[in-house]
Amino acid sequence: MWAKLQALHGKVKTRSISEVLFADPTRAEAFSLDVDGLHFDFSKTNLDVECLATLLKLAEEAGVVARREAMMSGVRINRTEDRAVLHTALRAMAAGAPDGAILLEDHDVIAEARATHDRLVRFVNAVRSGEWPGGGTRITDVVNIGIGGSDLGPAMVAQALAPYADGPRCHFVSNVDGADIHDTLQPLDPETTLVIVASKTFTTLETMMNARTALRWMAAGCDAPLDRFVALSTALDETKRFGIKDENVFGFGEYIGGRYSVWSPIGLAVMLAVGEEDWEAFLKGGAAMDAHFASAPLAENLPVLLALVGLWHQKFCCYATRAVIPYEQRLARLPAYLQQLEMESNGKSVGTDGTPLPHGGGPVVWGEPGTNGQHAFFQLIHQGRDIVPCEFLLGAEGHEPELQAHHDALVANCLAQSEALLQGRSLEVARKQLMDKGKSEDEAEALAPHKVFSGNRPSTTLLYPKLTPFVLGQIIALYEHRVFVEGVILGLNPYDQWGVELGKELAGGLIPAVEGGALPQGASGSTAALLDYIRTCRKG
Ligand code: F6P
Description:
By secondary structure, the chain is of the alpha/beta class. The chain has 3 domains: 2-10 and 33-62 and 296-399 and 413-496, Glucose-6-phosphate isomerase like protein, domain 1 (Rossmann fold, 3-Layer(aba) Sandwich), CATH 3.40.50; 87-281, Rossmann fold (3-Layer(aba) Sandwich); 499-539. 49% of the residues lie in helices and 11% in strands. It has helices spanning 2-12, 17-23, 27-30, 49-62, 64-73, 87-94, 109-129, 152-160, 178-185, 205-221, 236-242, 268-274, 276-295, 302-316, 334-346, 378-383, 404-423, 427-436, 441-447, 469-490, 501-514, 525-539; strands spanning 32-35, 38-41, 103-104, 107-108, 133-134, 137-138, 141-145, 169-173, 193-198, 229-233, 249-251, 321-327, 364-366, 390-395, 459-464. The chain binds 6-O-phosphono-beta-D-fructofuranose. 6-O-phosphono-beta-D-fructofuranose binds next to loops.
């Protein structure tokens, strides 16, 4: 199937996407899909009916259907860690799945999710009403200390759902750079601040160092500092060792991966900000996408199509990177979130059996919100030699009806970018436009090549009605499943992340050297020289 797709790419690669679109008035409809209010347009790509059918066959032969069922029913598909992958269970619980619907051996995953959810709701309501911590104190600020999946998910969702926030203000500290925690805590009052330590393992260096710093800060301004600390973790022995009261600990199962954990207690900061109802709407949005993913035929399955378009661009068109451009300022952290989701999941070289992947792993993902990106890297996207397929996201409506003109300009810009990428501007048109503006023939001749846009650059657009909690849930679950489908087709395990280990180990060995001790055995001359420079500066 790979060879067939390579051959098909050979046939379509020089074809003008624009001409195909103009020649076929049905293409926009045929190469788009509507799912529960979302509209995904992939007509501005060079895929044709035969390419798409072959890609679908590739998905079928890779066993996407069976793997999907295995994942959602609790089979331990994360073999290298011997874990099931059940973030979908958290959403199923919110959508009303009965206790017992998903069992992990004899463990009732739905009942566990419901019990934790109910505890979280009681806690959230107590904090939001001012009943917690008691004594007339009201929590005004929440500081979530975590990193990776224990930060990016809640930070991205909290920003995205800002219009729904009516609880305490949320702050996020992730970096071990002391500037992060310093600047965050500085304006806050320990008396009215709740610190959440979010860490699946409760051993992550950055998080634990920041948590200890926050505890010292709290102790300096409040009588019972640990009373203001909450832990979100699977490592209950570690939370106890830190001194966090059991009643302030919210656990979750090992079957919730870090970068898939925003739906779990890891989302507590968001829950505190938006409250129970909007949080549940977010979970239900995820559940709606799960139901679609689990039941729609592959050809009408949104995560599958998103994955196939991405694979087509990366593996057959050989475009190494993919840009995600949300035209929604409140999705400013979505590209960073998707970087972890995609690259920590699929950035691998060996398959599930440990042998080299025949077609390599997933792509580099990057991006920024529009319209800001237009004034930064779009130059390269339009005129650079390397082609970067763009994935645009856009809401039909914003949350500021009083600023309708802004939203209209946002929409126009998003649509204009995909149109410009598609159609480009020829040398003749560039020359003529210059002469129409009064340039001489020679001047036009000299300047025109700089104003040429090759066009024929692919993009997709995901439209949604408005960025509500439900819609955000749909979008995040869509991307999660897309990553899963890509992983199945590439033949890798998207749920482990051994590639983050080595750097962590070496950092552990280097800390004593940075503090003045000897360089660890085996460190390179380059690292020795870099450390020398730092020591010299510090002495000076
Ligand atoms: O270093 C990578 C990683 O393990 C991520 O997968 C994870 O999201 C992050 O670190 C944080 O881990 P934890 O929640 O255990 O602190």
